[in-house]
Amino acid sequence: MWNYQLPIINFQTISELVNFQNMGEIPQNDESESRSSYTSWISETSDRQGRERGLETYQDYLGIKKEDLRGKDILDLGSGETERFSRELKAAGIDANVICVNPDYSIERFRKANSALPDWQKKSVAAIAQELPFKDECFDEVFAVYSITVFASPSKIGGNIEATKRWLSEIVRVLKPGGEARIMPLRSFPKSEEQIWQEDYGPLLEDLKKQGLDVSVELIRYKDIGHTMSSSSHMNKDGVIEEFTEYVGDKIIDARAVIKKPHEEQ
Ligand SMILES: C[S@@+](CC[C@H](N)C(=O)[O-])C[C@H]1O[C@@H](n2cnc3c(N)ncnc32)[C@H](O)[C@@H]1O
Fold it and tell me: Whose CA is nearest to atom 4 of ligand 1?
């Protein structure tokens, strides 16, 4: 089914969960074409000098509580190379099975950096969201934070709708019945949920609904990420500096998609 080999960093720990295939190489990217082919990816997207988001930010952006993740099979899709979410979840005392997918692991430098981490969870998979190397229905939760929607969006400007359709269908495929996916960001500073449904993601999310999935769009406000007040200053026409502090907690900054796969009917 899969036509390339995934450099799996730790084979053993996840061998029961995933269906590995050993049939070749992960596709090599031609950067110039990486936004035109739906199976391509943009390499070295993890290399952000340690600006990876951790557990707290994942909770805020995704609208989740760490306690609810106990015992779950979780896919962190586009984890970033240091897999901060999986390590901090473990450090917080939550025992969950977090598998981290990151196409940059096909580059040795990233594998080395990752495997040197003292608290590396050893559940790292080099793959792309458009072709997930996992068997059907094996995750309770799929999280994607600033990953696939940034690098393969349905936007008419610079996006790739086929790539988006592919990762959406792959996410649905790997979700267990009763499982859910939380994916963000869908758009910066949306005005409303309706706006998301009317724009690029709308038809794709509607299609999922037609397939029987429970799909919703949730707005993310400043207060959700712990930011409520904003200060600024300006010099008025008399040369006097005026300070302003305003409440910005209700301002919308982003949106996430929540896709739930229904339980199988008895
Ligand atoms: C900006 S980092 C975000 C890392 C982390 N989720 C965070 O919020 O800090 C983007 C991640 O998306 C991954 N990525 C890019 N294209 C991808 C694709 N097609 N499939 C899966 N992951 C992808 C990158 O390798 C990287 O791990």
Answer: 80
For residue 210, how far is its CA from the centre of ligand 1 (angstroms)? 28
Q: Which residue has the higher pLDDT, 203 or 45?
A: 203
Is residue 73 predicted with pLDDT exceeding 80? yes
Question: Mutation test of ligand 1: which of 79, 82, 110, 183 has the most ligand atoms closer than 8 Å to its C-beta?
Answer: 79
For residue 151, the CA-to-ligand 1 centroid distance in Å is: 8
- Domain positions in the chain: 12-221+254-260
Contacts of 4 (CB under 8 A, 6+ apart): 23, 24, 25, 26, 27
Closest CA to 141 of 101, 92, 175: 175
Domain at 12-221+254-260: CATH code: 3.40.50.150
More confident residue, 62 or 47: 62
CB atoms closer than 10 angstroms to residue 31: 10
Residue 14, pLDDT score: 40
Q: Which atom of ligand 1 approaches the CA of 129 most closely?
A: 20
Confidence of residue 37 (pLDDT cuts 50, 70, 90): confident
